[in-house]
Amino acid sequence: MSEQSLPAITDRTDPFRPAVEVYLLGSINYEACLTLQHRLVYEAAGRRDGQISILICEHPAEITVGRQGSWAHIQYQRQALEHKQLHVRWISRGGGCVYHLPGQLAVYPIVPLSWHDLTVGEYLNRFQNALLDTLTELSFQGQTRPSRHGIWDRNGQVVNFGIASKNWITYHGAFINVDPQLHLLRMVQCDPWERTPQSSLAAQRRQPIKMARIREALVRHLTGALGCGRYHLYTGHPLLAYQHAKSRRLSAKAG
Questions:
Q1: Mean pLDDT, contiguous 10-residue spans, the chain (255 residues)
Q2: N or C: which end of the chain has fewer CB within 10 A?
Q3: pTM passes above 0.85
């Protein structure tokens, strides 16, 4: 575990606010990550200290469909999906379809909005600004659009949003196309309002990008945007180890 002290970059920074807990999960199955989010939302509802947790990870290939998405946004025929063993999951979150792939960075903040005196709209704006500041720091050119949440470059959309909240606690989040296979991403229409092609940071720079550098800048900017001055950084999460051990015990009993 490591702790970093950060400069105040918003007027809400307060030394008495809790440090943000950031968990770097590496590559993780979408179902396991969603289960962990639900558990963290449940725990946050029982706390009174305003603790924020952020999960950062990549997912194996899977398509999720938010409340604004539909089958019409997926170019694959269902038979082709079965042949590729590509799972399509309907999710109760905002936004449209997201094709999750290695090389795409998923960011899931668990934020008790009421404690931090934030509306959903304010939270989304702060979240988007933190991602935009991250890309700017790393010399990527990103643009936003009025009344929309997402980040675009000259080739298409590089950041997609799809959030949800339960009892005023956020989960789900944003997806940064760092260096995924673009020809696969473009089989899914992520923006439900227009046929904007998917792009990536690697396509803009035309050279490899270190994921660790993006994660480091992202954690700093997102921590500050949420009004906190410090963060604790962890590799993995203890609840995942517990889930894995429990699954192994059940498999052993079944065998």
A1: 39 67 97 97 94 98 96 92 93 95 97 96 97 95 90 94 96 97 92 88 87 96 94 94 58 49
A2: C
A3: yes
